[in-house]
Amino acid sequence: MAGLVDTTSADTANIAMDLMDVDEVFVYFIPKLTSSTGHRADSWSLDKPALTGKFTLSHYETSNILHISLLEPSGSLFARCPINLNGTPPKLLDTVVETVLDSSRYFVLLCVDDATKREVRVGIGFRDRTHASDLKGHLQDYVRSIERQNKAKELKAPPPANLTEIEKGVEGIKVGEGQKKEEVVEEDEDWGDFEGA
Question: What is the mean pLDDT of the chain?
Answer without folding.
Answer: 80
